[in-house]
Batch of 2 targets.
Target 1
Amino acid sequence: MSEFLYSFNEGSRNMKGLLGEKGANLAEMTAMGLPVPFGFVVTTEACRKFFRDGNTIVESVMEQLHEKIQELEEVTGKKFGSGENPLLVSVRTSSVVNIPTMADTVLNLGLNDKTVSGLAKLGGSNEFALDSYSRFIRMYGSVVKKIPQAVFVSTYEKLKSKESLKTQYSEEELLYRTVEEYKKIILRKTGKPFPQEPYLQLKEVISAMLGYWNSYATMTYREFHEISRDIGVALVVQAMVFGNLDDDSCIGTVFTRDPRTGLKGTCGRFIVKAQGGDLPFADSVVRSIEEMEDFFPDVYRQFIKIAALLEKHYRDMQEIEFTVESGKLYMLQTKKGRRSPEAAIKIAVELVEEKIVDRKTAVAGIKSADVDKLIVDAFHMEAKMRPEVADNFRTIMTWVDEFRVMGVRANIDTPEDAGLALQMGADGIGLCRSEHMFFGEERIYDFIRLIMAESDRERSRALEVLRPYQTEDFRKIFLIMEDRPVTIRLLDPSLHKFMPKSEEEIRQLAGKLHMSEKKLAAKIKVMHEENPLMGKRGARLAVSYPDIARMQTEAIITAAIEAGREMDGMPDVSVMIPFVSTAREFSKVRSIVDEAAAACFEKMGETLDYSVGTMIETPRAALMSDKIAERADFFSFGTNDLTELVYGLSRSDTENLVEDYVKKDLLDRNPFYSLDQRGVGKLISMAASDGRKARPKLKMGLCGDHGGDAETIKFCRDIELNFVSCSTLRIPGARLAAAQAAIDASVKND
Ligand code: ADP
Ligand code: MG
Ligand code: MG
């Protein structure tokens, strides 16, 4: 058996890497005894050899091709190049990974001025043969010579309109002229005549179709999606069958379940007297597959049986292509069917109910993008999930949590967010941004008064106004989350973020604060920072304004104890110190927090367990994680800031630049959406392992926009983080991704 060419009866579905998906499935169907027109696969190994040999099919491979064609001649009883009973083949791309830039299928290869009359004898009509010939020339021109299909189509249209004026010309005459015109197009555009010799046609078509693997478009796509060049592409060479032969012939595409709704039962369409891939000339009627029973009752029943068999065999919804030639059914393709998000979850649930797959397989097969889409549609478009969809969704998410190991928490701002997080199935709150609570209508002025305070008295008065707001918000959040972990981050952003920008705003604020506009403007100027993302923020604020950190801690502890009394059990409380860059700085702020908590316990006559940890979001904190871990109870990797600082890229200033870099292939993808695992990830993995060495029980998670990204979640599992935290609507998708990461890991350890 040559590694380069595999006959259909030599392969199986497990050989996708060598035969491509289409080839492997055609081999599988052949082994199942289904009626598949015979053929062979030009393997990915042959593809690699083709490029090693300087983009040519060398003589030895050409000889093997001859042998395979001879085998096809024996099986079909037809002859390549024969004017009596010609063998015609299709050449089809068979991808290992789906890439949209591959070549289209070439049908009717082997037709020439001589064999076309042989084909006419088969169908009993010259029209059928000439029509097939013209299609072949058109596809040859488009796939091999890269002449746009439109050139051929417009030539045909012109001929047709001319002919219709002079009605004495027959359909046959029109097609004959079309063939002649098409040949002229090839000659005119390439300087070479359309090749008449079938083996030369085969060599040219195979070379050209393999060539698409290294086209500029494919290379760009491959690099963007990190697909290795070595994977290669396979081709299928298969004996033609003719759905356009006569009125007893048709072509069809069918799903074994409805790809839109997931409803069980075949769903698709068929066209009487047509050939696949001929959309430009399709003036035929497209019928729904049920109608096929009226046209071809026997073939229909045979097909329905085969479709059910294939779904059972592959244990998934299939997308199937078939052709009927003069009342005889041929299977041309089967593959995992495309489906809508709604269909995806329905099919998964029902395949489990029907005992076709187990829960693990069902969960592993769903895309987290589909789950995201269902949630986003239900919430943003106000479409609301239909009850049946919601049921399936719940079922899937219950299964997801059976396999999930890593925690999935929510990033929130308000008690309302906490409610939504719970509804989305969050295990807890990974990040509650406390500053957002100051942004309310009136609260913002009180907060500004705090920042502007010129004396201790003024400051403490402002703090006392704010304290009840914060306490109340935290209390509500604790009550909603009950005993689930809630991590509250102390004030993080640079204070001038809260300041007015325009003159009008300054005028209004001055009025509110009973302050002169001039004085307010001067204050704002003093607070201005050139680079606020690296300015006085995070832990630095707590060092400069310990009162604020103290008040926030007291609000957290008071709220927790109050909620605990109401709930009969204390909440699980963590205080998170943001934007730390040194261990001493962390210790300093931690002592402010611990002292404030102690004072609170004293006052309330009750204590509770709480932890204090930090965000690792500056490169230095990551580098010094062992030292910080000696004093911190947990880490949460703040990947937004960390990515900016590791790259030296300001996210808000460089959106266009990053896009441009991705286009120019200088970046694989936007590192603010999916974690840069090689660079930023290297730092995180090092910081995690150093931190764990210093404190084996250190809890670690990742919060930041990356927390909802499936690839990033897989990475977090690999470095054994305890949880990810993401925005509320991404939680179901993140739970699925975490389950899939766990399933992946368990398979690898099998
Ligand atoms: P795609 O990968 O885009 O689905 P295919 O290779 O399946 O492309 O081919 C496109 C069309 O040509 C399909 O309708 C298919 O059924 C038809 N086709 C391919 N090979 C043959 C063949 N040997 N005989 C008849 N029709 C064929
Ligand atoms: Mg197909
Ligand atoms: Mg941050």
Target 2
Amino acid sequence: MQELLDRKKGLHRKILIVDDEFIEREMLGNMLNGMFEVAYAEDGEAALDTVKREKNKLSLIILDLHMPKLDGYSLLEILHSDPELRRIPVIVLTAEKEAEVKSLQLGAADFITKPYEVPEVIQARVMHSIELAESSVIIHETERDELTGLFHKEFFFEYGRLLDVQNENAPMDAVVIDVNRFHIVNELYGREFGDSVLKKLGKSIHDFVNENGGLACRSDSNCFYVYIPHQADLKEVLPEQIEKLDNLFAEPKISLRAGAFIDDGSCTDMEQRFDRARLACGQLSKSYETGYGFYSAALHDNELHSEHLIKDMDKALAEKQFKVFYQPKYNIEGDQPRLCSAEALIRWFHPVYGMISPGEFISLFEEKGLIHKLDRYVWNEAASQIKKWKDRYGVTIPVSVNVSRVDVFDPLLGEMLDGIVKANGIMHDDLLLEITESAYTDSSQQIIETVEALRSRGFKIEMDDFGSGYSSLNMLTSLPIDALKLDMKFIRNICVNKKDCALVEIMIKIADLLEVPIIAEGVETREQAELLKRIGCEIIQGYYFSKPVPSDEFERFIEK
Ligand code: C2E
Ligand code: CA
Ligand code: CA
């Protein structure tokens, strides 16, 4: 209750009166003492000391302009240029008109003229300035993201639109900056570290916007928007800027992707500019390297192309435009390579675009939630193919199929695969399941559960693209897997690059430790195959033996 009364009276608020003349200080002090807690300073320097020491406690400063040591103008300037001190309102004491103008320009909130008016007027002026400053702090806090100090998205767009109106739709560039795999950064290094990454990024982006004019916001947890007046040389400026941001995070490495729309007169509103910047950003892979890209007409065409592919998919499935190709895997442990299994890889024979490889549509279908339909089709085709070969040749050629990272979240995945196996009359371990390593690191708990459930049904799981993700040794030993497939990029230079070769040797040792076979894919030459054999790799797949081929062509490998 007492606190409430104090609050009403203003007593919990502290004000600082700065004047070199004792009498003046006392007069003002007496007027305000009952309402506020009052502190005094007799020159600018003493005032600055007090302000710095009590910056969180002071609600207002009353400042005389003419003082020894540090005069009122200089103090005003210092206060206004310090982001932490700027929020404290200053009322200036003056007798001259010119001084009023100048001090308002320097950021003063109000002024009191000498000789003093009646105490009630002065008290009211002081209270008014304090309340004004306090409500602006509240507005500031609701408009801004607490962590980075940048705008929240809604206010960002609100102010951006206002800016456009004020500037009569002058050209504006839009940039979207994303932290790749941010949830993993949080998971691996802790929330606090994640926050510090966002803070640093926010600060740099804020500085950039300050230099260039414009606005910035944190649009959601790990994504930033920047809206700046058009710069003809943004194509050169942005890469430098992104590199600067990238350099902020050396250890551990954080990667970013940035997409930009450079105003070419084809957009008139802010939303559209950001749609395009987002599109440019979305085109970049969420890799472990920082990258950037610009919106272009070609990108727009690409987008249209993607739209067509999405629209055409159902019809293509019904018309069997998708064909499953098979690539052999050979066991190279003995004297002669021995065909041991195959990988099913999808191809789309599109009536207009011709043959389209999966690189063009898999991630698109994943993004749009369509991949399960396609994968189910491939799994069925592969299962029925295994059965056909079993019947025709009396041998089982296990076929591995790709299981998208998105499929892992389907609660009915195991049941569906079970159904496919049974309907086609094959065994669970005839249909091998390949899951990419990054799916493990992106959603480790979920995937471990899914994979364990699949294995208990009798399926065998191969970890695809091993070495491209972030698996720690620790994590690997606790993972339920039946084979490791080395990422192709390690094989490419294995014969020329000692480091790559050493890495592959390490990965083979890891596979030994886990007691699972290792499969090298992307093997193109005899030298690569021989080297791999020498260092203990058991199974290889690649153009050296064969490209992926249609099922009838594959049969000649079985016949051999
Ligand atoms: P992946 O699973 O890593 O498959 C290996 C890719 O490497 C295949 O590309 C294959 O054709 C290619 N490849 C094989 N040997 C060599 C070689 O010696 N040299 C080179 N340069 N490349 C080789 P493809 O068929 O274009 O497939 C690309 C990716 O698309 C696959 O990578 C896989 O992630 C995905 N994918 C393919 N089919 C399916 C599918 O049915 N479902 C899902 N979810 N993803 C699929
Ligand atoms: Ca694969
Ligand atoms: Ca692979």
